[in-house]
Specification:
With 306 residues, the chain is mainly β. The chain has one domain: 6 Propeller (Neuraminidase), CATH 2.120.10. It is built from 2 helices and 20 strands. Strand 6 and strand 7 form a beta hairpin. The longest helix is centred in the N-terminal third of the chain and has 11 residues. The termini are far apart.
Length: 306
């Protein structure tokens, strides 16, 4: 005799979802893939670098819990880091120091290896706050500062990418300023962080987002991927996306995950505030607090592991 989960009074009665799914499998009425719950998305792994030159690892699912730490060796004294980011195509974590030198950081050992003995020709010791992020399409490092400076670095040579090779000397990219048609046109701007999206359907296009700290806004540097006419981030043109609704921001580090374009930021609202992790909606700028990052110490760099 064949037993059926439907044999009793011909109905599902008080059976729960798990029992129903199991019964359907026995009866051959359900495909196993349909009966199994969807796998949970793997939480992003986050790295921060603090002023004491220690790398810290966290999970975005539990930002308050430090998973590991690595003291960094090989960075020269008196040359603080201004940002870190992954060169995603190669899985390497880079650090940029105030002297303009690039280093590759080994997250297993904490060793810092200089890309080049020479520093960039761009003066970076003026006390400005810098933001940096790799362009996944061009494989170049975008660097901006609160004073409006905007340029790119080559990850293998540490050299500044010349924006106009036809002109003698090395030309930087266009200074950061709102587009003439934007609501912020004519206003001052203080960009403290930038991050690029990843387009899996067309890796040749990307969008560069920026966080303006004096008002707490999410901006686009250049045009949205796929939009026409195309405006390069090299122009420095900024357009407003929307408010983070946090007010003025003291410090911010920003990154966008290559896996799913999840935008996360390590933000300190005041000099006395703890560093907290936020998720940012790229379509609107709206932010959601995920929790304090570790013990809340100030961070010099923040990156999402690919």
């Amino acid at each position: 005799m064949t037993l059926s989960i439907f044999s009793r009074r011909g109905c599902l009665g008080g059976l729960g979802p798990a029992a129903i799914a199991a019964g359907l499998l026995v009866q051959g009425l359900a495909h196993p893939a349909l009966a199994q719950p969807a796998p949970a998305a793997r939480p992003h792994t986050l790295w921060t670098l603090t002023a004491d030159r220690v790398l810290h690892r966290y999970s975005a699912a539990e930002p308050a819990v430090e998973q590991a730490s690595r003291p960094v060796a090989g960075l020269p004294a008196g040359d603080p880091v201004v940002g870190i980011d992954y060169r995603v195509a190669y899985g390497q974590l880079y650090a940029l120091t105030r002297s303009g030198r690039l280093y590759v950081l080994d997250t297993d050992t904490g060793e810092a290896r200089a890309v080049s003995a020479a520093a960039t020709a761009v003066p970076m010791d003026r006390g400005e706050v810098y933001g940096m992020n790799f362009n996944p399409s061009a494989d170049r490092l975008r660097v901006v500062d609160c004073a409006g400076q905007n340029f790119r670095l080559h990850p293998l040579t540490n050299e500044v990418v010349d924006a106009d090779p036809a002109t003698p000397g090395v030309q930087l990219d266009g200074r950061l300023a709102y587009a003439a048609t934007d609501s912020g046109a004519g206003k001052g701007v203080c960009i403290k962080a930038v991050a690029y999206t990843y387009n899996k359907r067309d890796p040749k296009i990307t969008t560069n987002y920026a966080i303006e700290a004096s008002q707490g806004w999410l901006l686009m540097q250049g045009s949205l991927e796929g939009a026409t006419p195309v405006v390069s981030p090299n122009t420095g043109q900024l357009t407003t996306v929307g408010a983070l609704a946090l007010g003025r921001i003291e410090s911010v580090q920003f990154d966008i995950a290559d896996r799913d374009n999840d935008a996360l930021a390590a933000i300190r609202l005041t000099p006395q505030s703890p560093t907290q992790l936020y998720r940012i909606r790229l379509a609107s700028g709206a932010s959601t607090l995920l929790g304090t990052l570790g013990q809340g110490a100030p961070v010099l760099g923040f990156a999402i592991e690919p």
